Give the backbone structure.
Amino acid sequence: MIRPTPLTEPRTLPLRRWIWPAMLLFLAACSRAPQPDWKLTNVSGHLPDLAFHLTDGAGRPVTARDFRGHDVVLYFGYTHCPDACPLTMTHLHLVMQKLGPLADRVRILFVSVDPARDTPKIVGEYAAAFDPRAVGLTGSMNEIVTLAKRYRVAFTRGPDLGHGAYEVNHSSAIYVFDSEGRARLLASPANSEDDIAGDLRLLIGMEHPS
Amino acid sequence: MSRRRAMATICWLASAWTTHAAAGQTMSAPLEVRAAWIRWLPAGLPAAGYAVLYNRTNAPVVLVGAESTEFARTMIHRSLSSGGLERMLPVARLAVPARGSIRLSPGGYHLMLIQPRRPVVIGAHVEIRLTYANGRSQTVEFVVRPANATGPH
């Protein structure tokens, strides 16, 4: 027997049936991966994952893979910089202090843009002078240019100041990567310690839900 | 007798005048300098010196240089941050306005202290002589603070 059915019903029924489950799934997805109210600039998906081949303070070759498992704060500078770089490194040290025990999940990578003067030993001692979780890295000019280009970091050697002294003008950007090396946030030294520490806390919280 | 008395008077006047002059010189240092400190850095790297310079007089005082027996060279510099780029520029003259002050502070004006003659130790005091455009100078004691310090204390 064939039952007479209204013409419209078979067409609209599947849609009605799926719209609510779909919305529920969407909401569930949202609650699983909430996008926090970042204070810094969210660069997720806009910058490449952390990748480099450099040398640490002990003269060992290191790559970005060696820092997987830690959230990374990346900053470029040079050790013959007595004012601006120490200001940013001190700023980041105070951020680490604000994080308390969570700071152990974070590494500050200080990458030299002056490999001609920055030996592994000097850059290692310089970074460590600011924070025990800061790592000084240097390398060949080619290795540093490769990393700098990856994040569009500019640096240029300034004029000769006499006696072989010179400055290196460089980008002040601070990059935050998650523990899998994905670029997540972009900060500047103008961002407050509270804003940087707060966002790092959020990021660590997303990675290690309690 | 009167001659000896005259000589004694002259001597007394002379000694009184020199004492007064010496006292006057220390009393009227060109600037009042406070919160002077040096950020220590490892490996004999260039260090930065900071202080607040107060001019209590009615005329500007122009800082033109600094020197210290502890460092081979000392320069006045200024850090500039613009367009996401950090730069450092040499400063030839730094005028402290009449009845005003200038802050040598991280991220701005600072003394750049190059090549320590002997290791600089955290907690030590280092004398730096500030020189002015009018030919005068004064010696200021700077306290050495750790790399991650934010000020003199």
Summary: Chain B has one helix and ten strands.
